[in-house]
Amino acid sequence: MSNFLSLIQNEQMKIYSRARTWIMLAILVLVVVLWAVMLKYVVESGLNSMISFVSMSTSLSTLVFIFTVIVAGDSVASEFTWGTIKLLLIRPATRSKVLASKYISVVLFLITLLLVLLIASYFVGLIFFGLGGMIPEQDSFTDILKTYGYKGIDLLMSITLAFMISAAFRSSSLAIGLSFLLMFVTSSGLIFVLAQFKYTWVKYLLFANTDLSIYHSGGKPLVEGMSLGFSISMLIAYWVVFYGVSWLFFTKRDIAS
Q1: CA separation for the pair 250, 94 (Å, rounded)
Q2: Over the stretch 93-136, which tens digit does the pLDDT of each residue have?
Q3: 144 near 226, Cβ under 8 Å?
C-alpha cells in the first residue's frame, strides 16, 4: 500500500513541478476575478449577493475541463515522448499500479481545480457582491454543491476518455485534440438535434448521459425511456470500457515498440 501511495505522490510531484500547472491555477483565479468585474460593472446582471455569484461561476467549469484534459492527455503519452517510461517501469510496482496512480493523480487534479474554482468564486463574490441581497431559491449552497457534483461526474468521464486515448495511442496531442472536438461537437447541440429526429440509439451515446442534473431539476430527458438509473449505468459501462482499454494497452504493449 505504501508503495502505491508513493507512486501517487510521485505523479502529484510531476504535475505540480511543471510551470503550466501553476499557470492554469492562476488563469482560473484570474478568470473568476474578471468574471466578477464583468458582472459587476460591464453588464447588468442584477447580482447582489455572493451566493448568486458562486452559482453563476459554475459555468466556468469549462476551463476546468480544458486544463484537466490537457493533464490527462499528457499523463501517459508524455512518458513515451520523453522516454521516461522505461525508468518508471523498472520500479518494483506492477504496470497496473503505475497506471492507476497516474489516473488517480489526474482525478485529484480535477478535484483540486473544482475546489479552487469554488473557493475563488466564494471569496471574490464576497469582495464584489457581499452577503446581502435577495438570494434565489435555486442558489442555495446545497444546490451549488450538487451542481459541482454533477459537473464533476461529467468532467470525470471526459478526462477518462482523454486518459484512454493517451494510453492507447501514446499521443498527448491526439488525446487532447479529440477530447476537445467531442466536447465542442456535443456542446453545439448535435446530441439534442439527433434526439429530435427520434433516433432512439442516441440514448446509448456517452454525452447523452453525462448531464445528470436534468433528473435533479425535473427536466425532460433527451430520449423517452431514459432515467437516472439508466444514465448512471451507461456512465459506469463507459468508464469500465475506457479504463479497461487504457489498462490493456498499457500493461500488454511492448515498451520497446
Answers
A1: 11
A2: 788 888 999 999 999 999 999 999 999 999 999 999 887 665 66
A3: no
Residues in CB range of 168: below 8 A, 6 or more apart:
245, 246, 249
Q: How many CA atoms lie within 13 A of 57 on its CB side?
A: 33
Q: 471526459: which residue's cell? A: 158
Check: CB of residue 236 under 8 Å from CB of residue 212.
Answer: no
Using one digit for the tens of pLDDT, what is the confidence trace for 151-204?
Answer: 999 999 989 998 998 888 877 787 788 777 777 766 556 777 777 777 788 888
- Which residues, 6 or more positions from 102, have their beta carbon under 8 angstroms from its beta carbon? 11, 75, 76, 163
Provide the whole-model pTM: 0.89
Q: Return d(Cα 97, Cα 5) in angstroms, integer.
A: 10
C-alpha grid cell, residue 225: 425511456
Burial of 8 from C-beta contacts in 10 A (0-12 / 13-18 / 19+)? middle
Q: Residue 90: is it exposed, middle or buried by C-beta count within 10 angstroms (0-12/13-18/19+)?
A: exposed
